[in-house]
Amino acid sequence: MRLAAARGDVEHGVGTLPRRARHRLRRLHAREPAPARNGARCLPLPIRKRPPMSQTLPSHAEIVVIGGGIIGCSTAYHLARDHKADVVLLEQGQITSGSTWHAAGLIGQLRSSASITRVLKYSVDLYKRLHEETGLETGWKMTGCLRLATTEDRWTEFRRLATTARSFGMEMHLVSPDEVKRMWPLMDTSDLVGASWLPTDGQASPSDITQSLAKGARIHGARLFEKVRVTGFVMDGSRITAVETDQGRIACEKVVNCGGQWARQIGAKAGVSVPLHPVKHQYIVTETMKGLSSDAPTIRDPDRRTYFKEEVGGLVMGGYEPNPQSWATGLVGGDVPDEWEFQLFDDDYDHFEQHLTQAIARVPALAEVGVKQMINGPESFTPDGNFILGRAPECPNMFVGAGFNAFGIASGGGAGWVLAEWVTRGEAPLDLWVVDIRRFSGLHRDRAWVKERTLEAYGKHYTVAFPHEEYESGRPRIVSPLYERLKKHRAVFGSKLGWERPNWFAPQGMVPKDAYSMGRQNWFEPVGDEHAAVREKVGVFDQSSFAKYELAGSDAAAALELICANHVAKPVGRLTYTQILNTRGGIECDLTVARVAEDRFYIVTGTGSRTHDFAWIEEHLPAGGDTRLVDVTEEFGTLSLMGPRSRDVLTAVTNADVGNEAFPFGHVREIEIAGHKVRALRVTYVGELGWELHVPIAGTGDVFDALMEAGRPHGIRPTGYRAIESLRLEKGYRAWGSDITPNDNPLEAGLGWAVKLGRDTGFIGREACLAAAGKPLAKRLAGFTTSNPDVVLLGRETILRNGEPVGYLTSGGFGYTASKPIGFGYVRNADGVDDAFLASGHYELIVANDPVAATIHMEPLYDPKGDRVKA
């Protein structure tokens, strides 16, 4: 067919695959594709020349990897090569079958996370040299990648990405439309504002990479089996002791679920939730195009939702539509058929026409070129667009690598590397929180919800990434008892792990809705008013979404002393801010521990950390001890009463003595408010006098009403999470997941005071902290401000010291009391970062690719007079 037709009823060929798969079909029988389920085309199986796979299943293996796509083969390769592990890989079809073989093969490296960018850079480095080890080419070609911008918002996004690239040590350039035309002569550039150019990006052959990894795994001793289907697991409690297959049982110590679009079904056999959903993804392969260079850069045209890459003189072209097509058999979120191997869906040019129209507008020559093949196959996508790695919270010896959102080829090499490290050592080798399976919760077992949210994430794959943008699907899902009350106060809600949380409150006359932009957004002034209310009067925050646990038992105190970096086994009535560290000394958890009885502790952590922190604590409880960890999140609502007038309000609603002598900072008391017993924690995250009031969930509304009524003479108002962010930046409080992560130890983060190194007490991470304390620190967290109030700091802006890059911001925002933009970031120097080094530098921040003069701060920008936080 000719693309100008852009219709599915025009006759077109279906028998020619792109180069990466064409070699698989050269010796097929001359016949029509066999019929398959669900209207699919079934491609006959290829004949391959390679060493035969192992044939007899062993009765035992140290590690069983399930899935022979690129992730499974990469994981097996790294387990065998780097760790000399006894590895068996099981593939129900053939190596590369499923979704790997029909992937488009574009390889980009830049992501918003430094760790994930490192993972992708590792993939490229591996693909460049893998053939030297295995003798099998990967098809790697460093063409570079052009990303096109046709709007000012997109151009601002690219300018920020260029700054991120510099922060992460990647080469990225911003180029003019004329330069784009020179690099890609067939392109219409008349609507471009500009483009970004990443010269080290490229493309590769997914099947060839996977076969090379499989051969490498065999070279290093891994045993790979095809045509073996996993049918279940033998369990001892929550642990897997053996893998059941249609050809026998394999006893094992660990399982790695790399089942691709089947990973959810495989996980379910062990009670593990893997929240992904298959989506139909289409692209075409054209005939040869005159004038197309063999080394033409790959193209991502996000404003037109399309991508291109050169292949054998023609183009591969696909896109991410706003109305994606889900794939599931039977009921909503049904199963993927086991026998789906080298199969495709029927061509759907009606649905694909939206991409054809945009592609022809961008590359007019496409209108006259023939189509060799349409590839319409399923890809696994996730509810937040990030892939899934790590130890399953429900099963401590199952690890997962799945849900790669159509960039599994770009991620495959690095994902296999970090997953192998994780499986072997029991900890992630770097900060992988954005892809950690423990970022999910019980909510993600709802397959209908996962489907709806995943389709929204797919539809946003190429939309402009506005700061602070919220997902809209599947809401509201979880609400606190105050939801309707806060709506009457004109709350604008965000969502975190399913919970509706008030981000800000719109004043009368203003539409209570976010208006996204690349500059100051519509909530900037209202949040400033909320900020001022907390600094000057009193505010109340609904933080009921906090994750809350209770650890009880006669050995609870000793267990927490082993797990926590700070001394938490204090007398009853005391609470402690603490980190929990990994063996590298990195910060895995950041939470508050209150001792409410001799044998009971109340633990409070962030909403998003709920699954992760619970599982981490549970897995590190000493075996055989008398301890019981229970999640009580839904049993308590949480109201944070904060501000210099908060004691006046609290005194008016309780008979308890809440004076500083009777109720000092860092203590917990049970008090009564509005007829309800409330667990009151004297702690703050905003830098003001205040309490967290943990209320039996049914009484949350009564307590809120009482506080609002008593607070009216003191100017009380409900306040939101955007104000919390501004307030904590001024006070210098760290945020886990940005300022403090598993990559950072407390000494580097300025939290050495919260580590009990002065006590003769062992705890996880102690040795790493002692080692760090015994030598100069290579990085330290610092605050930065700019004098220009219009500068928007978001995080990942490059920090320059005397003109040289020394780090990047981990978080950013605006301090309304200080009247300045504020950011935190680590200053790095291999020879050590001491006070003199920090003080002697001249600093700038690169913001959206422009330098801005900055001032460094090692102390909080805001410190209340008279120390009223602890008064």
Care to describe what's here?
β12 and β13 form a beta hairpin. The strands form eight sheets. Strands 6, 7, 8, 14, 15, 16, 17, 18 and 20 form a nine-stranded mixed β-sheet that branches. The chain is globular and about 80 Å long. It has 19 helices and 41 strands. Among the domains are: 60-101 and 207-276 and 384-443, 3-Layer(bba) Sandwich (FAD/NAD(P)-binding domain), CATH 3.50.50; 546-626 and 745-770, Alpha-Beta Plaits (2-Layer Sandwich), CATH 3.30.70.1400. The model is unreliable at 1-52 (pLDDT under 50). α2 crosses α9 (408-425), α3 crosses α9 (408-425) and α12 (524-536) packs across α17 (721-731). Helices cover 24% and strands 27% of the residues. It has 871 residues and is α+β, with helices and mostly antiparallel strands. The N and C termini lie far apart (78 Å). Keywords: Oxidoreductase. InterPro entries: FAD-dep_OxRdtase (IPR006076), FAD/NAD-bd_sf (IPR036188), FAO_M (IPR032503), GcvT/YgfZ/DmdA (IPR028896), GcvT/YgfZ_C (IPR029043), GcvT_C (IPR013977), GCVT_N (IPR006222), TrmE/GcvT-like (IPR027266). Belongs to the GcvT family.
